[in-house]
């Protein structure tokens, strides 16, 4: 699998994880009546989980993507 496809898959998985975790937390907070639907609390929940996902995705990217820059440099110089 080339680096572009790996990158797209990685970002897609991160978005699905963010959406799932944030939605579950949002549901729990709505059920417990911490806030109501459509309020700033709901917005903050999704923004906070989005920020956390970006930080974690950035930290773990090298484990899943490897060294994409080295791979791109090899292809550019004709090595494979």
Question: What does this entry look like structurally?
Answer:
The protein has three helices and no strands. The protein starts with a helix and ends with a helix. The chain is mainly alpha-helical and 80 residues long. The protein is elongated and about 60 Å long.
Task: Please give the structural blueprint.
Elements: H1 3-31, H2 40-65, H3 68-77
Task: Characterize this entry briefly.
The chain has 80 residues and is mainly α.
Strand residue content: under 5%
Give the helix/strand class: mainly alpha
Helix content: over 70%
Secondary structure: number of strands: 0
Whole-number mean pLDDT: 87
- Gyration radius (Cα, Å) is 18 Å
Low-confidence regions: none
Main sheet makeup: none
What is the overall silhouette? elongated
- Helix count, per DSSP? 3
* Secondary-structure element order, N to C: HHH
- Distance separating the two termini: 14 Å
Overview features:
mainly alpha, single chain, 80 residues, 0% strand, elongated
């Amino acid at each position: 699998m080339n680096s572009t496809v790996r990158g797209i898959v990685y970002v897609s998985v991160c978005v699905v994880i963010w959406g799932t975790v944030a939605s579950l937390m949002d549901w729990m907070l709505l059920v417990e009546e911490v806030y109501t639907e459509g309020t700033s609390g709901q917005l903050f929940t999704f923004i906070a989980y989005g920020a956390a996902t970006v930080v974690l995705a950035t930290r773990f990217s090298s484990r899943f993507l490897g060294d994409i820059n080295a791979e791109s440099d090899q292809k550019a110089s004709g090595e494979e």
